[in-house]
Amino acid sequence: MKEIEIVDDPEIIKIIVEETRSKILRLLRFRDMTISEIASILNKDVSTIFRHIKKLEKAGLIKVTGERKVHNIPEKLYGRTIKTIILAPEAYERSSFIKRYTEKAFSEIKEALSEMGYSVEDEKFLKDFLLKIEDLPLEDLNLLIRDMEWNNLRRLKTLLILLKIDWKEVEKLREKVHKPKI
Fold it and tell me: What domains appear along the chain, each with residue ranges and CATH number?
């Protein structure tokens, strides 16, 4: 399994961000599974999962990793081909579908900040800032040859962001997203 891949092809991004396929990819992060196992966990019809699996397989995101017998009937096991998938922000503007996905992601982040007691004074600034910091480590991560454990890769990405970030922008962020004093 490849450790990391940066995906900037809008068509592949569309495949990844579709809700059911995204859930399938998350499930396969932990272990290889059969279509019937995935269907059972996601409470979906086997034929529906089969169609999603075929799209993911055609895109090169998953592959058959083996076979398991369930009630004496052989079923293919599927696993991810990439441990960590990073979606490249420059592709976000190319598709209305991807725009909707990033809006949903932004809403989730904003709600999480609110749950933690943060106030967002300028939503547009926060959106732009999030897109900017996603883009900062991509150039260097594209040069990475070695496989890295996922947590170390996450730490490396954070370190690259810290090394490249414009600290004036961070100060603006602190003004526009803050925890009110009680």
Answer: 2-83 (1.10.10.10), 90-178 (no CATH)
pTM for this structure?
0.62
List, run by run, the mean pLDDT of 10-residue segments along the chain (182 residues).
Answer: 78 88 91 93 95 96 90 90 77 62 84 92 88 80 72 86 91 88 70
Cα 154–Cα 130–Cα 96 angle in degrees, nearest 5: 110
Whether 2 and 83 have beta carbons less than 8 Å apart is answered as: yes
| Residue of 125, 79, 86, 78 whose CA lies nearest to 106 | 125
66: left (phi over 0), alpha (psi -120 to 50) or beta: left
57 neighbors 63 (Cβ within 8 angstroms): yes
